[in-house]
Task: structure prediction
Amino acid sequence: MTADVVKGMVATRFAKAVNIGLLVIVGVWHLGLDTLLVLRGWPVYEPRAAAAGSWLALTVVLTVGAVLLLRSALGTRTARMLAGAALVTGVVATAAYPPGEAIGDVSWAGNTVGWFGVLLLIQRPLWELITLLAANTAVTVGFLAADGALDHVTVSRLLAMIYTTAGIQLTFAYLARQLNDGAREATEIAAGQAEYLARATADETVHAERRRRYEYLRIRVEPLLSGLAERRLDPADTVVRQRAAVEAARLRRLFVETDDTPHPLLHELRACADVAERRGVRVTLLAYGELPDLPASARRELAEGTLLVLATAATRARVTVVTTPEDVVVSVVADAPPETLVESPGPLTVSAAYDQEEDQLWWETRWPLRPAP
Result:
């Protein structure tokens, strides 16, 4: 999983938590407070069907908007359409108020439309919410003006209402955006630190792997090369040639150990086979079953016996890899000398036999995939 995906997941979860909190506020406001106000003003609404229909229409808008918002499916066009529908519904509800009561005791739609705007436009730029709140205020002012109720007292009450309701709604929307931005920034910082630690760990692993390779070269290969260079070892000696073949195969397997391949074990065995083929040995490599992900140490021990047999094979060799639910089995049959038989360390089950009549050596190594009962 990439750092960008992690950042996106954290930011999405935080935004969803903010959306749920906002939805609770709007739901309680509409289904609780608005319901009480509609019931209290029911005798004076005209027509009453407009008040009831407006309440029901806003309930539908709330339901649709909430579902889409929680599913992260509230697109720009849909959000604007629902906000516009809430505004129009608020106009219908206000038309049912008694004259001059657009901000009276029985008015309820103006505040509700504002909160609906906060909910539906929470993911949109702040200017869209400001536009909706301005239009909602204009509706209220228009009805008051049409009723001839814009006196000094009413204007003062209107300004106080705008300051308290629209101000709180804008503040809530602004703070929600700040919280989302803060969460995204914190997530980016944490992801950056995690990425840095991952790179540092990878660099340390690569460095350790290089040191292991250099140490191997110093212990195993350097004495061989020094002996050849100082003429203490004879290149024509069969033992020296077999030792050189073994170390060449080990080096080849060592350098392909960190290659990024779908089947690392087969890739390493193929590298060992290539060394033998360069000496004229005919090598056949067969694999059966789906290989699991094996650690480098397991692959190293599984390949060691096959490497020794291939390095000492004279003309032919057949390598077989079989995967079962219980273990991974690597076997090799080749015309190699019986001196190749050595003990293999580690949690391996090793079987070996030499057929003198056929002049061939059989070697099998098992790596358990399940712990023994």
In short: The first strand starts at residue 282 and ends at 288. The beta strands are 282-288, 316-323, 327-334, 349-355, 360-368.
